[in-house]
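Need tokens for this chain, all 402 residues.
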Amino acid sequence: MMQEKSRRPTRSATIERPRTHAWALRAALSLATMLSLSLLGCARSGADPEPSDKQAYSAPLERAPELVEITQIESSTLEVPVTASGSTQARRVSGLGAALSGRIVALYVDVGDRVEAGTALFSLDPMPYQTALDEASAGLALARAEHANALHDERRVEHLADRRAASEARREQLRTAADVAAARVAQMEARLARAENNLERTVIRAPYAGSVVERRAHEGEMAGPDPVVILQESGALVAVLNIPEATLVPVRVGAPLRLHAAGLSAPIETRVDRVSQRVDPQTRTYEIRATVEDPSGTVMAGSYVHAEITATTAEPRPVVARSALLMRDGRSYLFRLEDDGRVHRIPVRVGAVTPQWAEILSGANEGDRVVTGDAVGRLADRDAVRISREGVAQSSTPGAAS
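Here are the structure tokens for all 402 residues:
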């Protein structure tokens, strides 16, 4: 009985436990309230304060005007340097064969020989052609004799016919015979002239002054239309150069050209003589030609040459200094000065470009005032500027096409 009595809770213990739980609950509520007030105060302290008469706000400071150089755009043609390579060749190179067939009996030249126009290069056996000439000569003599006889008969019958001693038919017959004999004479004269010409052509001569660069046959061989001697014209050479189709400014006839070749102490100054109107579909280049005057004889046909050509744009366009261009994301811009003293960034399309100048195809006009120099990279659209110097863009300035 004593053990069971001790296990029962007393009244005081039963009443004390609820009081403890209530106190803990009140403490938790108080702590939550304090945390909420604290967070609310932090949020209010971080928010922008409401304006009041006692608070003053300062406006953001404007950027100081940039000191810039200004250039006025002018229209002009632009000289653009173009480089090309190629080789030299003679103005004329001829493979000389025989117009007749025959056996070669003599070769008068060899590789490297220089010849004048009309110099004999090789000759064929003349015997068959001499025989043909003799036959033609004899045939002509016979034809002339027959013609003379026919004329004599015609005149005799004419006399008889006038006396009515010969018929009119006989007169016409002999007149026709005389005409036929005259035609045969003309025919034999032509045959004789051809035989003489053939005999003369058994000697093959140089058509112009030049040098022998190749010999393809020897005495005793049969000759025909195939070349026996290759002749190269003496004098000035021609530089044959290939220009890329993608060149911004096409090369035109008359463009100045500086030619460099191995062994030359100084480049050869010349001009473009010819420009091909066809682009090679394989190389995507077109051909130009220029005369090569080399008194020293250093440059030979077939020599490799390198050329510097000054190509000029076809018509005047707005031109600016390269330092005026701003490149951003693959596009080109200019800073144009407006009347309010601020600059406006304008997009432009650029054409031909040299180390100093750029051609403007669209976006800017002649007379526009644009910023040049290092300040271009520091400016933004609508920036205020101060002018330190102002000039005019002139692409003809020395060195513009170097």
